[in-house]
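Q: Hand in one record:
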Amino acid sequence: MHAHLTLSEYGQFIGVTSECLTVKHEGLTREYPLNRLKSVQIAKRGVSFSSDVIIACANRGIKFFIQDFKNETIASISGTGQHAVVRVRQNQFEFIKTIKVASLSASVIAGKIKNQRATLLYFKKYHQQHKATIDKTAEQLNSLLTQIKYRKWQDFDKWNEILLGIEGQAASRYWQCLVACDLMPDDFKNRIGRQAQDVGNKALNYGYAILTSYIWNALLNAGLEPYCGFFHTQRAGKPSLVLDMMEEYRAWVVDRNIIKLRTQLNGKSDLTPAIKK
């Protein structure tokens, strides 16, 4: 099953033969059935493709996402036959004007913290020497969840600021615990987004970029506007709804897999093609 295909090696060429997408690189050709694909992500400069590929993918609702050197999606290519029910977006625009967005945002941040906690407890099974540290952090995260659960968010004028504060506290405790328990690559000291120099943060940023395209694809299929979010600040060029919806999945989908790869990442300054796969 190849629902989402990511291409990350310089010199790859994407073509189409019959009912398959073909990827040629260094004398080898791999085929991916079009009926099993939902999206294609190009995560490296120097990857080329033919117009036949765009036509084949557009006719089947397969979307293309192209990233820049910062692992940010800068282009999305999709067919004109994508979800076209205008009322869906109208409902979305109307909803974000209501106070209901406060409760929805609280639910999303609670889900994010729950998954951060679940990720720590998952690795505690294999690292009993760090049981005390992980248990302490898990309890701290649980306390923050309680703060979210028992507040009537629609009654707060500055609900967004309060939630951002809780989210920040949870993130700080979460990353500190991962570092203290040696669950991240050796050169990882703290979470850095853009322009990260250590391989641990580079791996996280790469993973989040892939997750971004998955979420973006799902939102487009649902007929929603990716740039109209309910929690993250809306500004030109920022896919706010994508960022909102991916929050819950960061820890369990991306962080957990990077932690599993930490021994392969140790001693490296950059991501290798093998690790990206």
